[in-house]
Amino acid sequence: MRIILINPTDRSITQEDVPGQVDRQAINRRLGGSLCFAGKFSDGHTLYVDDDGLLKGEQDCFEMPLLYLRPLAGLGVIVGPETEDENEDITDATLSLQEVQNGVRWLGTMSIKIDSIQHETGDPNMSHFEIQPTYKAVR
Fold first, then answer.
1. Nearest Cα to 8, choosing from 128, 112, 109?
2. For residue 13, with 0-12 CB atoms within 10 Å meaning exposed, 13-18 middle and 19 or more buried, which class applies?
3. Structural domain spans, the chain
4. How would you classify residue 20: left for phi > 0, otherwise alpha for psi between -120 and 50, otherwise beta?
5. How far is Cα of residue 109 from the mean position of the Cα atoms in its chain?
6. Which residue, of 23, 95, 126, 128, has the greatest Cβ tally within 10 A?
7. pLDDT tens digits along 15-34
8. What's the CA gap between 117 and 101, in Å, rounded?
9. How confident is the model over 34-61, as a mean pLDDT?
10. Which residues fall within 8 angstroms of residue 59, CB to CB, at 6 or more apart?
11. For the chain, where are the E strands, in sequence order?
């Protein structure tokens, strides 16, 4: 099965042929983290990234403004549309590498500062995290 990899570290977009049927666990393993749905293209192709990517310290990032409006950290994997039967099998990615390249913007390395912010009521159960991205110069 053909998948497309977006690697912001070396700024490459490549294809990979994975033997057999690809499922969400296989995508998880390829990402090296927790699977996170990042967006669906109009033709049904899906982009997945590592859900914890922004929390892993310094990460190289990219964005796909027409698909998702925030920075995406670490590897991205694009797979084809799911079948419309009860199995919802993932199919081959048929997008060209050039189509994907045209939609990607490289952001360089980003580190994240996470602060726990107390809710204005003072209730400790109402605190939340605030993520403040800091970009380094694009290589």
1. 109
2. buried
3. 2-108
4. left
5. 15
6. 95
7. 999 887 777 788 878 877 77
8. 38
9. 83
10. 8, 53, 73, 74, 109, 110, 111
11. 2-7, 12-17, 35-40, 46-50, 59-64, 68-73, 76-79, 105-117, 128-135
Tokens standing for 64? Answer: 């796909």
pTM value is: 0.77
Q: How many CB atoms lie within 10 A of CB 57?
A: 9
Dig out the tokens for 4 from the structure. 């497309």
Q: How far is CA 121 from the centre of its chain?
A: 35
The b/e string for 103-126 (b: 16+ C-beta within 10 A; e otherwise) is bbeebebbebeeeeeeeeeeeeee
Locate all alpha helices (DSSP H) within the chain, ordered by sequence.
24-31, 97-103
The residue written with tokens 């107390």 in the block is 118
Dump pLDDT digits (tens) for 79-130.
998 887 777 788 899 999 999 999 999 988 887 666 555 556 666 665 555 5
